Amino acid sequence: MPLLLILFGAALGVQLAYWGLLRRGVRQARRRNPSQQRNPSQQRDPSQRPDACSPAPAPPSLPPLSVVVAARDEEEALPTLLAALGRQTHPRFEVVLVDDASEDATARLAQGWIDALRGNGPSGRLVRIKEPQPPRKKHALARGIAAARHECLAFTDADCAPAPGWLEALARGHAAFSDGPAAGPLLIGYSPYRRRAGSASLLNRFARYETFLAGVLAAGACGLERPYTATGRHLSYTRALFEQIGGFAHSQASMSGDDDLLVQEVHRRRAAPVRHVFGSETFVKADAPRSWSAWLRQKRRHASAGRFYAAAAGAHLTAFNLTGAVLWLAPFVLGGTGFALLLGKLVLQYVALRPAAHAFRETDLLPALPLWDLGYALYNVLVVPLGLAQVPDEWG
């Protein structure tokens, strides 16, 4: 029994260390939010108070962006994305839609939207891939990047709806580094799942929690200057940075990883600073999978990229997730003492997550934290190993 107590106590110690670091990392990432930083070359408006918060420059002087979207059989979701892009506040951007050999009306819808844009709002172009090549999504994205007109690139998915201020915030982030590295920054952000009521409420809430926790890990690691993860639904970098790291050559063996593995490659090469943008105006919302089977397929695909993670990132994730899952066994092994250890873990987890939940507008998830954490432990024990064991050969 003393040995088991030591082992579970050590697991709690590891959890305490990680949750403390994550809380500090998120705080530091918010302080360095590039979308609200002033470029040093920009002069302060003398009419403003010294403590006024004004993220200059003014919108018309922000750099233009090319939004690259890879789509495959997305005729149902695409109209929502196109409508959201049409509401962007940033005045200068183009949309590059890459149709990856869709068998539905994706290309027709995209072309119709592009035709309607002429002389009215942003410009758009359609890139059609008739003979896809593996890894399909990365190949489609690379084709879109090659077709883009602007140096600054933004990426999202066809089933998303970026907030109206998304591109403006990314443009401000790039402008904040205009006097910095030639390759500019790599910008990442939060992409929450939409809230959905009804019969799928439990799945929706758990999927939202898992996505929220992934967002906390991304922001915290970024704030600690150890970035390793992001979401391809909310990503921005320059063409120069993409070319500097050799495109997607670093992760050709993985179907996934156009986000996580790219972030790790940028960090490994010290090619550019990685920064997290904050604020509800930057959120890129998406719909969660509507069935447990669809969610499991998605998570297995995402987990498969873990086989190609940098050793340090993989070790930290294993330690964090394994000790968190092990503590759920403590009450069964140690009785009341074990329950106290688990309760201690959940309390410190709540304290660490609360500021991030406010920043990401996910506070409604916190009251049921023990339930979501139990599900997350089971996910790491049962689902992640399946994703690591077999690399999928299909996108979507």
Assembly of the depicted chains? single chain
CATH architecture designation of the largest domain: Alpha-Beta Complex
Radius of gyration using CA atoms only: 22 Å
Q: How much strand content do the residues show?
A: 5-15%
Largest sheet: 7 strands, mixed
Gross geometry: globular
Please count the beta strands (DSSP E, at least 2 residues each).
Answer: 9
Mean pLDDT metric: 89
Query: What is the CATH class of the largest domain?
Result: Alpha Beta
Q: What is the overall number of helices?
A: 13
Taking the alpha carbons of the first and last residues, their distance comes to: 48 Å
- Listing every helix as H and every strand as E from the N terminus to the C terminus, the arrangement reads HEHEHEHEEHEHEHHEEHHHHH
How many discrete structural domains?
2
What is the percent of helical residues? 40-55%
Strand order of the largest sheet: 3-2-1-4-7-6-8
Find the structural class using helix and strand composition.
alpha/beta
The named CATH superfamily of the largest domain: Spore Coat Polysaccharide Biosynthesis Protein SpsA, Chain A
Q: In CATH terms, what is the fold-level topology of the largest domain?
A: Spore Coat Polysaccharide Biosynthesis Protein SpsA, Chain A
Describe the 3D structure.
- It contains 13 helices and nine strands.
- It is of the alpha/beta class and 396 residues long.
- The longest helix is centred in the N-terminal third of the chain and has 30 residues, at 2-31.
- The chain is globular, with a radius of gyration of 22 Å.
Keywords:
alpha/beta; 13 helices; about 50% helix; two-stranded antiparallel sheet
